[in-house]
Amino acid sequence: LFDVYMNGNQDSQDYSLLLSRSDHVRLSSLFGLDVKNIVIDPGHGGRDPGAIGAKGTKEKEITLDVSMRLKKRLLRRQSYNVLLTRETDRTLSLAQRVEFAKNNKGDLFISIHVNSLPNQTLNVIETYYFGPPLNSEILRLAQRENKESHYGIGELDSIIQDIGNTLKRQESAMLAASIQESLFRNVRHHDDQVLDVGIKMAPFVVLSRIEVPSVLVEISCLTKEEEEVKLASAEYREKIASFIEEGIIRYLEKQHSKKN
What we know:
Helices cover about 45% and strands about 15% of the residues. The chain has ten helices and six strands. Helix 3 links the parallel strand 1 (about 35-40) and strand 2 (about 80-85).
């Protein structure tokens, strides 16, 4: 529709600057967009346990607990409406998670996961936003996370087109960077060997179908036994929630300062 408009209106102003890949102009501040509703998505659940550690710790349990703690922390600020896609151990397809975010007019979407690296004993922290993958390892991770999408092949075109959503790309990258920086900086005090593998683009369906800034955070790695032991501690999970909260708030404060 945009191309038709531009090609059919030779006298119209040039809007190409808005769609440039430069992040010097932040579209959210340009249009005065605010964040009111934050949707937190605890990964997996129900019959889908996600990754399982050597001691039997299930990813779905960690993601739910950390997400509930994160919600409580954000609600204390009394500035945002915070919702969870699930608050119990129940099966939820990616399509249902997306629908929940849309129905509740989510302005930010943060999906919480715990990594699994077979045959490795590393603890890594990484944060994703939607875009084309850079290597085959990311493709394999996306394949694993997308297996319960419940979307049909006929909807693939709209997923691919989403890569070009400039405002969402800008904001998702900034949100991912803020959460990643906070998580790594703080976790390093508890594990000086933790690896910061940064922010990455990946074709996660749940991020594709969300039309607002959205990220998927791998908060830890269950295949490192020492990390699995720490994740069993309620005190450590509270710390993880606080690190994510710090990243979200710093992103929101930066967004606010750009508008002033």
